[in-house]
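Page 42, continued from yesterday. The earlier attempt failed because a stray header line got pasted into the input along with the sequence. Redoing it now with the clean sequence only.
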Amino acid sequence: SDKVYLQLKNTANADAIVKQIDRIVDKKSKEFEQQQANSINFKRWYELMPLRDSHFSTQINEQDVRKTSKPVLYSLMAIALFLLALACINYINMSVASIPQRAKEIGVRKTLGSTRWQLIKQFLFETLITTAIAGIFSYFLIQLGFWLLKDIIPPGITPVTGIVQLIFFVIILAVTVMLLAGLYPGWLITRVKAISIFRKTSFIKNQGFSLQKTLIVFQFAIALIFITSALIVGNQLHYVLNTNMGFNKDAVVLVDVPWKVSSNKQFKDKQFSLLAELKQIPGVQNVALGNAPLTNDFSASEYSYQQEGKEPIKHQVFRKTVDTAYLDLYGIKLLAGRNIHTSDTTNEFVINETAVKAFGFKSPQDAIGKFIGQQDEKLPIVGVVRDFYQRDFYNTIDPMAFESDKDNLNSFNIKLGRNPAQWQQTLKAIEKKWYGFYPPETFSYKFYDEYIAEMYKNEKSLAKLVNLATAISIFISCLGLFGLAVLTAFQRTKEIGIRKVLGASVTSIVQLLSKQYVYLILIAIIIATPVAWWAMNKWLNNFAYKIHIQWWMFILAGIIALMLALLTVSIQAIKAAVANPADSLKTE
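This time it went through. Structure tokens are written below.
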């Protein structure tokens, strides 16, 4: 069909214009049916789509039209905001941890008369410089990010699409980060008393649950949500790609005869001659004509079953046109009856288990010999096959019927031999045979398992995105935790020295310093678990067939976070525990 783009100057007349278009289409359709002496009896209508929405209409297949998915874009923005928040939190924690090392500098500045606002401005300026340097380094990381996410980012998008907009955005972002990350450490600096600094007493209170600890809990809660999401998304993706689909998709190649070629009288029925030729190729195990078992392209009609003395049972039935070799090629099992026979037009059906239940038959055997169809044209059921997935896992298995129709057999299903090393040679032989029947430019093949995997491209992109975000969030969270551990070790320097003098072992001191962080991670687990369950359950609800969220996924995410946290803290805890107690106590 041709694509038509309309620009409506007066949107108030949009509905009236669409109705006029529908009337013209109805008129032309009836004229076509009269010319063809065929009554298809279907209605076609049109709907308007705003031009802005057309850029995100990924559900509509259009060649040479660049589109992207809104959910993917929103996911990218949400993850970016989360990571930016984690980075700000991390900067706050690291800045607070560095205050003890800058104690004398702060004390001297305050003694020489620096006001509170001057100290805050100094720290904000340092934060701005740090952010600016990070912005410069981020340019190179952007190049890496575009390479890692090349399957997600729409083609044609470059790291720098508008230099003015980019500079403006970076300036706003730098100022925002400066305020978010610099205000609290700057304010904390102003609370430091100069006399406490020069006496080397602890000038930062060791609160029971300080802001730093709260931020660490928030950081690890976000990291835990990412870890849990990565586990669930990965398991669901593995499920949809590796579960038994009810047919054998391995080593199957699909080749379609283009519609314009198949409708040309010059090439009429040539597919049957080519079919016979392909069967003679040594590397070809089997060949069948027909629509692929699982595809999002489908044809459906409303069929009814009339039982004497009762109301007819009506259901929409998905129709697949196949030949007699089709069931054997895909290993689709017959439960009752027989395979369809070759015929020029449809005169019998082989239905699936779901159709048996939908029309109220007691069993597959009971369905054999019954008649279903449209109006007065009812055809017999000659066989019943086991259910298989007809569309992606977002859709349920629906009533389906195999039928034979010579004019609609234009798709080759080619089963290759068991040796993958010979496949390329076999494909070249198939291509050579094809050129003897059809124009060379019409030959295009695709492995069926790759075709199915392509249907879940968005899910694979989401999995890659979540995995990358998980790694970054864990890294940032561990840095923030390390900063808090440095601050805690400094605050408890004297205590650690006294404990060592009194005979405490390195192990006991490490346990003492690490224990409080276990509590923080447990709190983060309690917060993150319901949030992750809600978000992932909502995502899984889009699938008709999905995994069940298991308790072990949350336990595993918690163990991963806990082990990484303890590893991070242990580095600083061991350093504090092995220090010479004389160094920490000599000033007392």
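Notes: Residues 284 and 416 are 5 Å apart (CA to CA).
Reminder to self: strip header lines before submitting.
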